[in-house]
Design brief:
With 348 residues, the protein is an alpha/beta fold. The chain has eleven helices and 19 strands. Strands 3, 6, 7, 10, 11, 18 and 19 form a seven-stranded mixed sheet that branches. Strands 14-13-12-15-16-17 form a six-stranded parallel sheet, with helices on both faces. Strand 1 and strand 2 form a beta hairpin. Helix 4 (149-161) crosses helix 10 (297-306). The relative contact order is 0.16.
Length: 348
């Protein structure tokens, strides 16, 4: 089969590789159709690593995917050949302490598509995943929309991790790329009252406005903390940091009300971040990290399919597998108004 492989920093090449095989009774062979380019894919492309996860080149990345079932193992009962599915890229062991505690996203033996040391990715014609990773989609749902369910499930999980009802909450979203806009959609679907959204790209702020943000601001040209504080003198209930930047983390601590929650969704490129611990302590700020998603895939897919969280507007670019490097360069460079680049691997 054809596969697009990372061959070095900012280097990709199409290779012929062996077809993956069904080895376990619960395996499902999937013909990949659509793959969204994720920010974590870009980290591997430009940095060769995310923290301790270091790429050994050549390597296939990609995990925001949807396709059709090509074949199934002998024990598979939930899907059959020809079914159109969204793929949940993480698979857990179901046996470790984390899985038993309901934390499958931090499974001690987690496998993840396109993650170094865990699993080969989806930028290939075929991929094998366990049955529990296959979520059937409606006949009326496009495979493009289904591929958006993976990043949206992270947003749904992030809103859930706020730990309180989002309905009526006053929220901040710092960074309005695909994840930030997905958080906005999830929060609005849950009834969030007012959303204050920032980004350093003015075009993304316009998109956020159209998507329901009540206020937007560019921190490079506006004192976003002062302007939001003037509108919300008591502070925000929750801030979702969605860009992985130190500046945004500092702004979040200032924006939150005492007892507020800072949800860290963005993935920093650096190994360490810092906090104004005096301010965070005096406010008794709750700090909540987000690790992918934990069982939010079904809810995300239902919100997308029902139209309660319309996100098709995120897809700004569509390129074939052969032009994958071009798509990665677009996303890495924030070029041409890109939000989500969608790779067309096979027929829909």
């Amino acid at each position: 089969m054809k596969a697009m492989m990372l061959t070095g920093i900012r280097s990709m090449a199409m290779r012929q590789v062996p077809d993956p095989e069904i080895r376990r009774p619960t395996d499902v062979l999937v013909r990949v159709c659509r793959v969204g380019v994720c920010g974590s894919d870009i980290h591997y492309y430009t940095q060769g690593r995310i923290g301790a996860q270091v790429v050994q080149f050549p390597f296939i990345v990609g995990h925001e995917c949807a396709g059709t079932v090509a074949a199934v193992g002998s024990a598979v009962t939930q899907v059959k050949p020809g079914d159109r599915i969204f793929i949940e890229p993480a698979s857990s062991c179901g046996e470790c302490d984390q899985c038993r505690a309901g934390r499958t996203n931090t499974c001690r033996r987690v496998g993840f598509l396109g993650a170094p040391g865990q699993g080969s990715g989806a930028l290939a014609e075929l991929v094998v995943v366990p049955e529990e990773s296959c979520l059937p989609i409606r006949d009326t749902t496009s495979l493009e929309r289904a591929a958006l369910a993976e990043p949206f499930s992270i947003a749904v999980y992030a809103v859930r991790l706020y730990g309180k009802p989002i309905a009526g909450a006053t929220i901040g979203i710092l960074g309005s790329g695909p994840i930030g806009l997905s958080v906005l959609a999830a929060a609005r679907a849950g009834g969030a009252e007012r959303a204050y959204v920032t980004d350093r790209i003015d075009g993304r702020l316009l998109v956020a406005r159209d998507a329901g943000a009540g206020w937007t601001g560019n921190p490079d040209t506006t004192d976003v903390v002062a302007e939001i504080a003037a509108l919300e003198p008591l502070g925000l209930d929750v801030v979702f940091e969605c860009c992985g930047q130190q500046q945004a983390i500092d702004q979040a601590v200032e924006l939150l009300k005492p007892g507020g929650v800072l949800v860290l969704v963005g993935v920093p490129e650096v190994d360490r971040i810092s906090l104004d611990i005096d301010l965070a302590r005096r406010k008794e700020i709750v700090l909540q990290n987000v690790r992918r998603q934990n069982g939010a895939g079904h809810e995300a897919l239902e919100l997308l399919e029902s139209g309660k969280a319309p996100l098709d507007f995120l897809i700004t670019h569509r390129l074939p597998l052969e032009r994958c490097a071009e798509a990665f360069d677009l996303v890495a460079g924030y070029k041409d108004g890109v939000l989500k680049a969608m790779i067309e691997v096979g027929g829909a």
